[in-house]
């Protein structure tokens, strides 16, 4: 089943699955960077797919990037 994500559904997902807050007001597709505010107060941008599928749900200070192999 193909899910269509709206900004409202994304906001609901973020609220239920992370301590971050979605600041972006419009969603134009999977290639768009969304603006979030981490629980520490830092703002960061991520594509929703990375936020959702890769569990990258915090800023780079709270969740540093993994070292490349």
Automatic annotation (TrEMBL):
Going by the entry's taxonomy, the superkingdom of the source organism is recorded as Bacteria
Q: What is this protein called?
A: AraC family transcriptional regulator
């Amino acid at each position: 089943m193909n899910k269509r994500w709206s900004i409202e559904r994304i906001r609901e997902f973020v609220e239920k699955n992370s301590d971050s807050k979605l600041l972006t007001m419009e969603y134009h597709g999977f290639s768009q960077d969304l603006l979030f505010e981490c629980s520490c107060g830092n703002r960061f941008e991520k594509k929703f797919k990375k936020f959702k599928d890769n569990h990258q749900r915090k800023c780079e200070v709270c969740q540093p990037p993994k070292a490349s192999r």
